[in-house]
Design goal:
- This protein has about 575 residues and is of the alpha/beta class.
- It contains 19 helices and 15 strands.
Length: about 575
RNA sequence: GCACCCAUAGCUCAGCUGGAUAGAGCGCUGCCCUCCGAAGGCAGAGGCCAUAGGUUCGAAUCCUAUUGGGUGCACCA
């Protein structure tokens, strides 16, 4: 239940009513009529722009429409006043009962309060992390992982059937490099000196791999040519890297449903098929690209390649799919993969990339635009900006050579998954994020993670205290409490915030912005803390009222409803709510 | 050179796909602990939303240009 959409429905039906009465002309479009919370609470509880939106098409003055509409709306029990204001806004003030009803709805529906049906059962594919399996995940991957996972959770909550997917770049030159790097560690495990070779991965994370390879092959591969060991070393090392990646993600509570292997595309013929189809559409040709102006790469020379006509769909240049030696470029499997996602029937496809891959957005969009023949798919790409690490306010420089390279696992071991996840979402995805190892663990009001967790824990504390005092506080009982006692403006304020929750979910889901959930939870927590603090001065605002079970239950119901929403919201973000703070 | 992202209080950032007098935290100023949790609370000051145009009833939000910052730019993934 969404009180805002209900009130919008009320406004629409009032407008239709006016049409049948002849006070408003027929044939108007109500699409842009909105009912929103006002920016300033002094303006009332909700505001509608109906009069302003309709004034022009109806050829009427906004105020005339607003006044007629006002008379209609106040006939409803829930609407106390509907005042015309400003350029033609209609400010609604709702009855206390309307807000008290929200508390009950939240308690009855529990974790489902706020769930939306805007997805209407449509399916969404969210691809994220997709880091190359050539090493452990680092903090940069972490943000993408958290963002993608929270976005997936958000879309689920909004009624989509969500697939979480990881694209494994297990093909191409990089994994051969990985195999050669593992080979050097294998030699080392066999007692030979380890030398850092140009172009190989020097990281010591391959040391155990080298040892495992020694277990497997003994010293038999030491002097063998590459052709004898490359394939087996590569497969083993990739598997091992993927195992670690899976493990790290699991520690972060990220669990992918589908892992799609790039290599499988090479053998399946999917790349050829996709290109064949594009060729039939006239979107593939042999040609020579112009060198980029202003910044000519070293050793540039004109070369004939097979190109995808990405410019046809908004890209800046056409993109090579086949190298001059006949091999596929990295772009070719991407083409086939995205076509595959389209063909798998998803209604929504989302790629989550790091900001350093921003240059790929246009070509990816070109792919989907070209291959989504029915123009059915909603395709979006979200970029996550860099994470800057700090320790006690001091910038923390990462360096592989100095051994200060921070892996995802380092972060999780120091900070834990809940804090990590929440902090990563306290900033818009396209804004850089500062992550301070000390500050994120600080237990103070300045730390949003703590602030939200604390609000939840406080409610749990009230429930425990009330139960000790012999007051029944199960949700069933609370939902039947006499909520009309929640008549104080501070209490209604909390209820009003709760009423915004379903609306917030839809806004966040529509824009694919899970950070909005985190900010909302902060605001909601703030409402609860504020009410709590007022209880310090004004005893009648405390949740537990001595010797008055009925009143206590009403007030506790409000608190519990807050906890229900915080819990649901944290659930979307993949964060466990705290029962108590220690 | 081109493309994409960004620019909002002294600082760090929100801002509802165009709504009213632009918000929060930190910092600053002033008050406040006999209290279901003061690891705080309440209040106040603080703004030309980078700049200049445009679109319209209405712009931080959309368009164009400019300035300043980040990222990326064929035969690597």
């Amino acid at each position: 239940m969404n009180l805002f959409t209900e009130m919008r429905a009320l406004v629409i039906s009032a407008l239709e009513n006016m049409q049948t009465e002849g006070t408003l002309p027929e044939g108007l479009e109500f699409k842009n009529v909105a009912v929103e919370p006002p920016r300033d609470a002094a303006h009332g509880d909700m505001a509608t722009n109906a009069a302003m939106v309709l004034a022009k098409p109806a050829k009427m003055k906004p105020r005339d429409i607003a006044e007629a509409l006002s008379a209609k709306l106040t006939e409803d029990d829930r609407v106390i006043t509907a005042e015309v204001a400003g350029p033609g806004f209609l400010n609604l003030r709702l009855s206390p009962e309307a807000w008290q009803g929200i508390v009950k709805v939240a308690l009855v529906n529990g974790a489902e309060y706020g769930q939306s049906d805007m997805g209407e059962g449509r399916t969404a594919n969210v691809e994220y992390v997709s880091a190359n399996p050539t090493g452990p995940l680092h903090v940069g991957h972490c943000r993408g992982a958290v963002f993608g996972d929270a976005l997936a959770g958000l879309l689920e909550y909004a009624g989509y059937g969500v697939t979480r997917e990881y694209w494994v770049n297990d093909a191409g030159a990089q994994v051969d490099v990985l195999a050669r790097s593992a080979y050097e560690r294998y030699r080392e495990a066999n007692g030979l000196e380890f030398v850092v070779k140009e172009g190989l991965y020097p990281g010591d994370y391959l040391v155990p791999v080298g040892e495992a390879l020694k277990e497997k092959f003994g010293d038999g591969m030491i002097d063998k040519p590459e052709s004898e060991w490359l394939e087996e070393f590569r497969d083993y090392t990739i598997d091992e890297m993927l195992r670690q990646i899976r493990e790290d993600l699991a520690l972060l509570n990220v669990n992918m449903q589908v892992w799609t292997s790039e290599r499988s595309y090479y053998s399946s013929g999917k790349i050829e098929k996709t290109l064949e189809e594009l060729k039939e559409m006239g979107l593939v040709y042999r040609g020579v690209l112009e060198p980029p102006k202003g910044k000519e790469p070293d050793g540039w020379e004109p070369r004939e390649q097979v190109l995808f006509k990405a410019t046809e769909y908004g890209d800046d240049v056409d993109r090579p799919v086949q190298k001059s030696d006949g091999g596929w470029t990295y772009f070719a499997p991407d083409l086939a993969y995205h076509y595959d996602k389209v063909k798998r029937g998803f209604d929504v496809i989302i790629d989550v990339f790091g900001a350093d891959h921003g240059g790929y957005v246009k070509r990816m969009k070109a792919i989907v635009a070209a291959l989504d023949h029915e123009k059915r798919v909603h395709f979006d790409i979200k970029l996550t900006q860099l994470v800057k690490l700090f320790k006690n306010g001091e910038p923390f420089k990462m360096s592989k050579r100095a051994g200060t390279f921070i892996t995802l696992r380092d972060v999780l071991e120091q900070v834990g998954p809940d804090v990590t996840r929440f902090v990563m979402l306290t900033r818009r995805n396209d804004a850089p994020l500062d992550f301070d190892f000390e500050k994120v663990l600080e237990q103070s009001k300045d730390n949003p993670v703590f602030y939200v967790q604390y609000a939840h824990a406080r409610v749990c504390s009230v429930l425990r205290k009330a139960a000790e005092a012999g007051i029944a506080v199960d949700d069933e009982t609370l939902s039947r409490a006499d909520l009309s006692q929640l008549d104080h403006e501070a209490e209604l304020g909390v209820a009003k915030k709760l009423a915004e929750w379903p609306r917030l979910v839809e806004i966040a889901a529509r824009s694919n912005e899970p950070h909005r959930v985190a900010f909302y939870l902060y605001d909601l927590a703030s409402e609860l803390h504020s009410l709590w603090n007022r209880g310090n001065d004004d005893g009648s605002l405390r949740f537990i009222q001595e010797d008055n079970v009925a009143t206590s239950q009403a007030k506790i119901a409000l608190a519990r409803a807050v906890a229900v929403v915080i819990s649901a919201g944290l659930g979307i973000l993949g964060v466990t709510p705290a029962e108590e703070m220690r």
